[in-house]
């Protein structure tokens, strides 16, 4: 298994040109399921996945991606969207699941359930609730003062929560791309696009944000522009 994963990671490349080869929609959907299993902050799963297969929508999205080769030749698109605004409903989902989960008779499970419920009932609203951006500043100042005496979580601004949602969505994106590689398909994560136009094309909620658009297909012989280049590992690896 270790060797297989190493091969998958090293095989995955950002492909800029695809063959005119159709790939099964269900294979892409299965990889999106793998994406939804990615680790994410507080299990709030503040993401949505849009699997674009319609020829008409494909052309519109390609245009919004400036018709770059990775978009123009793609067979399908997966648009990963952050939904920080859904924190209340996703919080409720987690609380209901915990409340209805069978517990052990030892009482240890009941204690864990109580802690988890308090986490979602009190802590999540504390860091996600907003009132015209003012609560974030209050939390920031509060964290600065308390942080003088003990360790405290400091990423409490509204902008911090936005970053958290994007980090979780990026983890899902990596799951998706590695899953596609394991099936013998290729992908390209694209950040060059007109986000407003894409939101209109897909009728996305105004409060949503696009994390990235991933094109999918089977790579053309000229689809990879060159060898994979990375800075020397000892420049990024530090053992303490």
Task: Walk me through this protein's architecture.
The radius of gyration is 21 Å and the shape is globular. It has nine helices and four strands; from the N terminus they run ααβααβααααβαβ. With 240 residues, the chain is α+β, with helices and mostly antiparallel strands. It folds into two domains: 2-85 and 164-235, NADH Oxidase (3-Layer(aba) Sandwich); 87-159, no CATH class. Helix content is 48%, strand content 11%.
Structural features:
240 residues; alpha+beta; NADH Oxidase; 2 domains; 4-stranded antiparallel β-sheet; globular
Topology summary:
Layout: H1 2-11, H2 25-36, E1 47-52, H3 55-64, H4 69-72, E2 76-82, H5 87-100, H6 108-128, H7 134-146, H8 158-182, E3 186-190, H9 195-201, E4 209-217
Antiparallel strand pairs: 1-2, 2-4, 3-4
Helix pairs in contact: 2-8, 3-9, 5-6
With helices defined by DSSP (H or I, 4 residues minimum), what is the helix count? Answer: 9
Q: How many structural domains?
A: 2
Strand order of the largest sheet: 1-2-4-3
Basic shape: globular
Query: Mind telling me which CATH architecture of the largest domain this is?
Result: 3-Layer(aba) Sandwich
User: CATH topology of the largest domain, anyone?
Assistant: NADH Oxidase
Q: Portion of residues in helices?
A: 40-55%
- Mean pLDDT, all residues: 95
What is the multimeric organization of the chains shown?
single chain
């Amino acid at each position: 298994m270790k060797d297989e994963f190493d091969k998958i990671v090293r095989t995955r490349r950002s492909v800029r040109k695809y063959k005119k080869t159709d790939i099964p929609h269900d294979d892409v959907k299965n990889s999106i399921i793998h994406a939804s299993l990615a680790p994410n902050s507080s299990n709030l799963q503040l993401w949505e996945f849009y699997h674009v297969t319609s020829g008409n929508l494909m052309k519109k999205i390609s245009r919004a991606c400036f018709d770059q080769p990775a978009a123009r030749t793609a067979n399908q698109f997966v648009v990963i969207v952050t939904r920080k605004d859904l924190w209340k409903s996703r919080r409720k989902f987690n609380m209901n699941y915990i409340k209805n989960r069978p517990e052990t008779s030892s009482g240890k499970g009941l204690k864990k359930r109580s802690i988890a419920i308090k986490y979602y009932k009190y802590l999540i609203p504390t860091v996600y609730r907003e009132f015209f951006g003012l609560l974030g500043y209050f939390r920031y100042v509060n964290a600065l003062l308390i942080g003088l005496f003990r360790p405290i979580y400091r990423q409490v601004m509204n902008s911090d929560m936005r970053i958290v949602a994007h980090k979780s969505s990026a983890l899902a994106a990596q799951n998706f791309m590695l899953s596609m590689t394991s099936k013998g398909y290729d992908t390209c994560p694209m950040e060059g696009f007109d986000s407003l136009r894409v939101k209109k094309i897909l009728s996305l909620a105004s409060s949503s944000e696009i994390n990235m658009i991933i094109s999918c297909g089977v790579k053309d012989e000229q689809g990879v522009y060159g060898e994979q280049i990375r800075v020397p590992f000892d420049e990024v690896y530090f053992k303490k």
